[in-house]
Each structure stands twice: as structure tokens, then as C-alpha cells.
Design brief:
single chain, alpha+beta, six-stranded antiparallel β-barrel
């Protein structure tokens, strides 16, 4: 009886080993995913049709306050992007350059003061280096 049970178990073990797949099954892949097309090469990628626009790293600020008689303006910038003292910046209104300013300080947090050298500026004008 022992020989009979042993021989049956050996037959089942050999039959189970004979049916193992050649590649291990991945539980996350499906048959549809295995038939995808190969990744495109750089030669087959389409070329961009329009102009390529790269963002500027220049700091952009705004005019917060203006004293036209004393010819100075208070400028507000993003935190950490205040221009250094004695640098020249330009004020823009509706995309047109309307004034030239020289940063004189004092600077506090994200605000600084600038003298109006040429032209004019108003509250809300954009200020950036040229």
C-alpha cells in the first residue's frame, strides 16, 4: 500500500513539473500589455510645429507706491528675489517701457526703494531688469 501511494504521489509531482511555464508569470502584466509596440526612437518623434518658449529667470516686481515730487518708488518682489542695491531696473506699463529706476534701498523683506531716473512710473507698473 505504501508503494502504491508513493508511486501515485511521484506521478502527480512529475506531471505538475512538466506543465510549468518557461517564463514566470507577472501578476501585474496582462496579455494585452505584452503586445504593445516598441518605444519610438528619436528619429520617429514628430518635430514641434510652433516656436519653443523658454521661461525667463529674471525677477519681476510691481510698483507699490510712488512719490512723483521726490521721484522715488517703492517696489515689491517675491520673497528672496529683491534686486541688489545700485542695480538698474525698468518699469513697464501695458508691455511698454515707461521708466528707468535705480535701486537705492533700504530693502525690507520683499520690498525695496528705487529712485526714478528717467521717465515715470505708476502704482501697478511691472518692474524688471532689461
Amino acid at each position: 500500500m505504501r508503494l502504491h501511494v508513493l508511486s501515485v504521489s511521484v506521478i502527480f509531482a512529475l506531471a505538475g513539473c512538466a506543465r510549468t511555464p518557461s517564463q514566470p508569470a507577472d501578476p501585474w502584466s496582462s496579455p494585452a500589455m505584452s503586445r504593445t509596440a516598441p518605444a519610438p526612437t528619436s528619429k520617429s518623434l514628430p518635430k514641434p510645429s510652433g516656436p519653443i518658449v523658454t521661461p525667463s529667470n529674471d525677477t519681476v516686481g510691481r510698483v507699490i507706491s510712488v512719490n512723483p515730487k521726490a521721484r522715488y518708488a517703492v517696489l515689491g518682489y517675491a520673497l528672496g528675489s529683491v534686486p541688489p542695491i545700485d542695480s538698474r531696473v525698468f518699469s513697464y506699463r501695458n508691455g511698454f517701457k515707461v521708466g528707468e529706476l535705480r535701486v537705492t534701498g533700504p530693502a525690507r523683506e520683499n520690498n525695496t526703494v528705487a529712485d526714478v531716473i528717467v521717465g515715470e512710473c505708476q502704482v501697478g507698473d511691472e518692474v524688471r531688469k532689461d
